[in-house]
Amino acid sequence: HRTHFTFILGPGIEFSPQQNFVVFRVGAGSEFELGNHWDFSPELIYDLKDGHINVLTFALGVGKRF
Question: Which of 43, 44, 45, 37 lies closest to 63, judged by CA?
Fold first, then answer.
């Protein structure tokens, strides 16, 4: 079984009908092979919007490779 690590870093723009936001994102995650072509992927992401709106996201993914 192998484990893969990912790192996220960069700027972006969030478009909204009310207001657009400049976003800076940083995050990290990993992918674990569980067997029988199944994967499990936890990820932690931090967004800073317009320099004062903070968003912290924890995501869990499950995947099946074909």
Answer: 37
Q: In this structure, are residues 27 and 7 in contact, taking their beta carbons and an 8 Å threshold?
A: yes
Residue 4 — pLDDT band, cuts 50, 70, 90?
Answer: confident
Residues sharing a CB contact under 8 Å with residue 20, sequence separation 6 or more, in sequence order: 13, 14
pLDDT digits (tens, 9 = 90+) for 10-56: 999 999 999 998 999 999 999 998 889 999 999 999 999 988 889 99
Residues 6+ apart with CB under 8 A from 53: 21, 47
Residue type, 44: L
pLDDT for 12: 95
Q: Which two tokens stand for residue 28?
A: 């990290």
